[in-house]
Amino acid sequence: MDVDHCCVIPWKEHLKTTFKPLMEGYWAGVENGSFEYGGYCLMNYTKHSLYAGQPLDEMEKEI
Questions:
Q1: pLDDT tens across 13-44, in order?
Q2: DSSP letters for 5-44
Q3: Whole-angstrom Cα distance, residue 60 to residue 10?
Q4: Which is higher by pLDDT, 56 or 35?
Q5: For 3-26, b where at least 16 C-beta lie within 10 A, e where not — what string?
Q6: What Å distances lie between residue 52 and 34, 37, 42, 46, CA to CA?
Q7: Is 53 left (phi over 0), alpha (psi -120 to 50) or beta?
Q8: CB-based contacts of 29: which residues, under 8 Å, 6+ apart?
């Protein structure tokens, strides 16, 4: 997990800029068998999505 996208960038830019890198990190973790890494990325993705006001039904489709 890229620490920048879950801890640093949200303080400097809009949360929506973290969605794509965190989702890419999730899929990279799943593809490589690193489910812990993927889980952390997905956790931060969902947290940032909720804080940014993204509707839950849209999040469900993406995941």
A1: 888 888 899 899 999 999 999 899 899 999 99
A2: IIIIHHHHS-GGGGHHHHHHHHHHHHHHT-HHHHHHHHHH
A3: 22
A4: 35
A5: eebbeebbeeeebeebbebbbebb
A6: 27, 23, 15, 10
A7: left
A8: 35, 36, 37, 38, 39, 41
Phi/psi for 55 (5° steps) reads -60, 145
- How remote is the C-alpha of 11 from its chain's centroid? 15
* Structure token pair of residue 33: 């068998």
Retrieve residue 54's tokens.
Answer: 């993204």
